[in-house]
Amino acid sequence: SQEEEALYRRLYREFADGDPAAAEIDAMQVSSRLWNSGLPRKTLKQVWRIANPRASTRLGFPELAACLRLVAHCQAALSGTASRGHAGLLSAGETLSEGGEPLRLWLEER
């Protein structure tokens, strides 16, 4: 949505120290901030693999937006506001904390 994109752009500028023209931001800063999401470690690893598949130390806006969007989907799943997802596999607690292939498939559908 437009609201999400505006939020992601604001966060991107924050990571870029206020520079709206920054082409990339530090991936480690983003990674560190994700720990505050309340998601299980395995979930965060899978989100990171999908949003940053080349394991780059720098992220552009598309990678940051993908990462934040996936985190939001996972948070919604844990709170019970998400759709059931891939083959009904989303019993949020199990899928998100176990990680692996079921979580990867669920995330890729998002």
What's the helical proportion of residues? Answer: 55-70%
Number of structural domains = 1
Structural class: mainly alpha
| Radius of gyration from the alpha-carbon trace, in angstroms | 14 Å
Number of helices: 6
**CATH hierarchy class name:** Mainly Alpha
Walk me through what this model shows.
This protein has one domain: Recoverin, domain 1 (Orthogonal Bundle), CATH 1.10.238. The chain is built from six helices and two strands; from the N terminus they run H-E-H-H-E-H-H-H. The protein has helices at residues 2-15, 27-34, 41-51, 61-79, 92-98, 100-109, and strands at 25-26, 58-59. Helix 1 (2-15) packs across helix 4, helix 3 runs antiparallel to helix 4 and helix 3 packs across helix 6 (100-109). Residues 85-90 have low confidence and may be disordered. InterPro entries: EF-hand-dom_pair, EH_dom. Residues 4-72 form the EH domain.
Which features would summarize this protein structure in a list?
110 residues; Recoverin, domain 1; 6 helices; EH domain-containing protein; two-stranded antiparallel sheet; EF-hand-dom_pair; EH_dom; mainly alpha
Describe this structure in a few short sentences.
This protein is mostly helical.
Q: Could you outline the blueprint of secondary structure elements for this entry?
A:
Elements: H1 2-15, E1 25-26, H2 27-34, H3 41-51, E2 58-59, H4 61-79, H5 92-98, H6 100-109
Antiparallel strand pairs: 1-2
Helix pairs in contact: 1-4, 3-4, 3-6
